[in-house]
Amino acid sequence: MHKQTGIVELLRQLIKTHEEETSVTYGELVKSIGVQAYGLIIILFALPSALPISVVPGFSFIFGLPIVFIALHIIAAKPSLWLPTALANRTVETNQLKKVINKTLPYLSSIEHLLKPRWSFFTSPTMERLHGIVLLGLSFLLLLPIPFSNFIFATLIILFGLGISENDGVVLVLAYIGSFIYALFLTSLTRELFRLFAT
């Protein structure tokens, strides 16, 4: 069986492919990534929100919106990724893309050797739709201006992306556990805020 290219190598190839260009469209990024599009594109668009640069107003919305459409594709079990024309034609500066990728490559390199196909139940078609539903919820939360939460939402999305890209059920379970814990925290926080303003 042919082994799929690792995430780190794919990101390096992505930089090399577009290094001579001043900017690249979202559509070109999707096309460049190819068969591992879902998992890697999820990671790619979530990475900026996991960095300190995401504190810039609107930054998470710009990079989070494509994740909404990716999640919808996963739920619908679409074999290939399609973005609306307006979104596919949106551009990102190549230097900005390189900066984001280069900042995260050392971290991804340190964990990539731990990733491998396992716990296949969590990578089954039925579970993939569930992944899509949770990703959709996380991506909507990423779009909202919730203070100091972008890093957490983006990290959980990246975990799902890693699990999907590498067919790693263990990573997907960790993503679910993290999502559940943070959902409990947000629910508790919301209740306390309602109680505070109601008194």
UniProtKB/TrEMBL annotation:
The keyword Membrane applies. PANTHER family: EXOPOLYSACCHARIDE SYNTHESIS PROTEIN. The chain crosses the membrane at residues 35-53, 59-77, 133-164, 170-189. It comes from the Bacteria. This is Proton transporter. Keywords: Membrane, Transmembrane, Transmembrane helix. The lineage of its organism: Bacteria, Pseudomonadati, Pseudomonadota, Gammaproteobacteria, Legionellales. InterPro entries: ExoD.
